[in-house]
Amino acid sequence: MDVSKLTLSGQKNLKDISNGKKIYENFMEMTKDPIKHNEEFLLKLLEDNKDTVYGKKYDFANIKSIKEFQSKVPVTEYDDYIEYILPMAMNGTSELITAYNVDHYCKSSGTLGNPKKIPFSVNAQESMQDCTNSYLKALVADKIGLNWIDSKTMSLIELSIETLESGATYGAISAKFMLQFKDYIKELFTSPFEAFFPENDTNTRYLHARFGLMEKNVGMVQCAFYNFFLEILRYIESDWELLVNDIEKGTIHETIKMSNKVRESLMEKIEPEPNRAAELREIFKEGFDNHIVKKIWPSLAILAGTGTGGFASYAKKIKEKYTGDDVKFLYTGLNASEGNFSVPYDLETQDSIFMPNNVFYEFRPVESEDLTSLLTLDQLKVGEEYEIIITNISGFYRYRMQDIIRISGMFNNMPKMEFLYRLNQTVNLAGEKTTEIVLRNTLNRTEKEFNFDLIEFSMYPDSDCSPPTYKFLIEALNIPEGVKKEDIRQFIQDDLSSSNPSFGDKIKKGILGEIELDYLFEETYLLYRDMMIMKGTSSAQLKPPRVIVNESQRKFFFALIDNEL
């Protein structure tokens, strides 16, 4: 391949693949003896951090085995680190919980909506870039070759970032990474800077869709969660005439919300493209039911992002209607504000494998409340479910992630995992313990039973009414004429009772009340998304609230109930 003939995007992709190949090969080798590499990682981490305040408190210097680590260091949650994080973030105080340089804090919403500051060391940033960029591209190249590399990426993220008193940055880590490419965004990505770092009230769906459609040579779509790509496709389907007309004339329609400053900046970046507009118009006139994505972007090879767990239904809808099997899905593993915890080992597989040289892992079987006898990578059983507990390279030790996973199989000697749900999304009004995955599966079966398009749902566990009650809110399109809300409500209750017999038993005994169901106005979840981004939440961390856990969420969604349906 003649590198000199590649575009800047192609050259960057090729460089990333070259760097990632070594990481990929090394990682495959580690799958043969993961616990050996995981223990080596832990002991080096403890040695590096033995002189920190936390390291001295728990005698890191004299810990020489996993067993000693587990006996000396307590299991922790975020509140255990607040006394350290505040002086780190505000004053730049070092050597408290980590010896590594921390110049960034991830913004993550707490249970009550109070933003957390999650330390993210420079070491962790390098690791994340290796795993989310170089490794993934090397994996793709290994599986499908290099035909896609000389193309742009449609990156569907919206970010914000600020600077703390200490000089460290605060926001999504992807915002810090994106700023590295600020001068080259036009050459690497389809969307403009104004879409990645939007001002309030900017219609970012329009920007991602319009600039994405302008570019025919797109090889990869990246999104934090698959639901946003589905939103963009639905937006194109409903508003394609406006989008194509603007592309044809080099205009931005007056109804598209944005400030005059943003509009002026964008107008400098566009010009009339009548040929591309004509091409798109012919494609869209044929309809959207026959895997239209490859007609729009013939070079598109990969859709990368989170499409598992609560986002699996979005992946299914995208594949069934818009992409078919011609675009390969790359499910990017378990990621959080605390770091990367698993990576894919193949395309089109929803499970992933652990990273023994980046994180030390422990596991609590879900049927046990015992935190004194946690398991390690070599002790997991296929088919079992566990809470994952991590020690990372940013100062968190034996930290409860609140994530539940299932071991789905083995890759060499490495357990394969699939994410199931978060503990704080488990409903327990009367001892019934209904998980988010049970709620999600029930609503997916409801959608199929009544043949409507479920956009999203939320459930409010109302403990103030007597008896306590599950109150479901759904946003749905194309509900068939003649289908009554009561029929849907009863199906949800019956299916949930079957899936969780404890719930059904408590309904029969009157310990829990009959469930309630209301419809939400169309685009409620888009409005919620826009509101949260306006408040500074990164789209990379923004998930639909399947279980309403705080008062601000409750007020928002209950104010948007459509009482006429």
From TrEMBL:
Pfam families: GH3, GH3_C, GH3_M. Residues 440-550 form the GH3 C-terminal domain. GO terms for molecular function: acid-amino acid ligase activity. Residues 353-422 form the GH3 middle domain. It comes from the Archaea. One of its GO terms (cellular component) is cytoplasm. PANTHER family: GH3 DOMAIN-CONTAINING PROTEIN. This is GH3 auxin-responsive promoter.
